[in-house]
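Most newcomers find our protein records easier to grasp once they have seen one. Sequence and backbone structure share a record, each on its own labelled line. Nothing more is needed to start thinking about how sequence determines fold. As an example, a complete record with its sequence and its structure tokens follows.
=====
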Amino acid sequence: MTGEINPKAYPMADDSLTKTIFELVTQASNYKQLRKGANEATKTLNRGLSELIILAGDAEPLEILLHLPLLCEDKNVPYVFVGSKQGLGRACGVSRPVIACSVLQKDGSQLAPEINKLRQSVEKLLI
């Protein structure tokens, strides 16, 4: 059962950006720089730990994570929607679907340049 992508899911990453996002999420998971789930993503935003928020455009109902873009805008954190919660779950390294995840900042992280590059691509979508 796959959910339809909700038109409210904006900005939506295209296929090549989605692939890049999933690769980064997988690496962030390996480096312990990832929090999975809408609640965890909300906590990292509130605590100012978040570099980037990735949301699933096929979450049912989408409203369960629509507070996140507002919070991201308040905290100046870029966010992006990807097409599939199943794909996001796999990228996070779990077998369950994941509707939201947060990539964390970490001083001296080897992922920093990649996170910054992805942040810039995501910010371009928001303009």
